[in-house]
């Protein structure tokens, strides 16, 4: 092999090595770019509780369980969520329903701060300007599955408060017990919790979920009516009345539906 040929081969080998390095660097940059711009959608549905939102956020952010909850509590104490004084540092009701984009730079704190900022805007737009109205909206969200029924639930709440009657809302007991069920037992109504609206008159101390647009609107625009009672006999069939005896008959229909598994 001549000296000239050997030099040419070395040059070609060097060029090949440089090309390989360039390709590797390009792949690394592309992957880094993809990672930096990769997004994960986080969907918060109307009526989800803070605990449910935190769990979903932990998964979207790929952080250990409980991380977002701790971040939200710290942010609330530090005033970063700009909660009203009446909330006493509890973000429940201020993790507004919607789709949030989680990127590589998104942190648990920035995520909950974005939710709270969105909540403040939506509450203002819906004329929900006091904490009590937000609490009412959350109950309506939990008790009804459409706007019309939500407005009636709000009216029942207002009618009961006006008469100094306990609200007796199963949804608030479910919140206290950290569950979601249609059946409330006598023992459930005796639990020692400020969210037990069978035992304690007035509104619970905080929202019981994060209400969406329709529930917020219903809370400020209740239907007209004298209703004091309601029961959802089956999905899509919620009945309202001011007659206790009629209410009991409908409750029995509900119980029959449950026994029949329908």
From TrEMBL:
Q: Does the keyword Ubl conjugation apply?
A: no
What are the recorded GO MF terms, alphabetically?
lyase activity
Q: What's the short name of a Pfam family annotated to this entry? A: YceG
- One GO BP: cell wall organization
Give the superkingdom in one word. Answer: Bacteria
Which keywords does this Swiss-Prot/TrEMBL entry list? Cell membrane, Cell wall biogenesis/degradation, Lyase, Membrane, Transmembrane, Transmembrane helix
Which NCBIfam families does this chain map to?
endolytic transglycosylase MltG
PANTHER family reported for this sequence: ENDOLYTIC MUREIN TRANSGLYCOSYLASE
The name this protein carries in UniProt is: Endolytic transglycosylase MltG
